[in-house]
Amino acid sequence: MNKPFLLVVEDDHAVRNLITTTLETQDYKYHTAVNGNQALMEAVSQHPDIILLDLGLPDIDGVDVIKKIRTWSNVPIIVISARSEDQDKIDALDAGADDYLTKPFSVQELLARLRVTLRRISYTNSIAEQEKSIFVNGGLKIDFASGCAYIDGKELHLTPIEYKLLCLLARNIGKVLTHKFILKEVWGSTLESDIPSLRVFMATLRKKIEQNTSNPKYIQTHVGVGYRMLRISSEE
């Protein structure tokens, strides 16, 4: 795909300059916003492909900005914040952020996160152009229409919950899904007391799709936060 158009939302002049200079070196086009209200106006009027968002804005908390944007757009949002506590990350991801980068960060890491997001955009767009009934990731294949899943050509015998978990992760490939989000989507509950059950089902699912559960290839655990399905390179 062509280089995307980014919206950089950052009130700190030095950090904003670092980000925009980095984008310029890679020929990315961008607009900037220095507060939440300006960010919302730019998001509506400019239709960015990716938003880089600071949480500590002077007028509106960044988490609230994410929530507002998610009422009308699925644009990828990468949070760049000095808030490093797990709960801050969980709140942002639950609100709808796609990724979370903690300050201070390296230019290389920022560019890597952008590349990951671009691959996910490209994949999503390619899926939209095809029948949305088949998902393939490495040796994993899901036929949504028939409700069947396969690993290396062999049909998986999954429980209804395991199948729901697998489909949810597949439809959000590359994105960290929090425990709360998964519980809501699969069980219709957000009770923390249900997290142990989620871990049990995730463990049984892993046993069925991973060759080595101690070094998982498909499902990555984000300790204290949730899970992510990794995109498997076509060369693997």
TrEMBL record:
SMART domains: REC (SM00448), Trans_reg_C (SM00862). The keyword Transcription applies. InterPro entries: CheY-like_superfamily, OmpR/PhoB-type_DNA-bd, Sig_transdc_resp-reg_receiver, WalR-like, WH-like_DNA-bd_sf. It comes from the Bacteria. Residues 132-231 form the OmpR/PhoB-type domain. Residues 5-118 form the Response regulatory domain. The modification 4-aspartylphosphate is found at D54. Residues 132-231 bind DNA. Keywords: DNA-binding, Phosphoprotein, Transcription, Transcription regulation. It holds the Pfam family Trans_reg_C. May play the central regulatory role in sporulation. It may be an element of the effector pathway responsible for the activation of sporulation genes in response to nutritional stress. Spo0A may act in concert with spo0H (a sigma factor) to control the expression of some genes that are critical to the sporulation process. This is Stage 0 sporulation protein A homolog. It comes from Clostridium facile. The lineage of its organism: Bacteria, Bacillati, Bacillota, Clostridia, Eubacteriales.
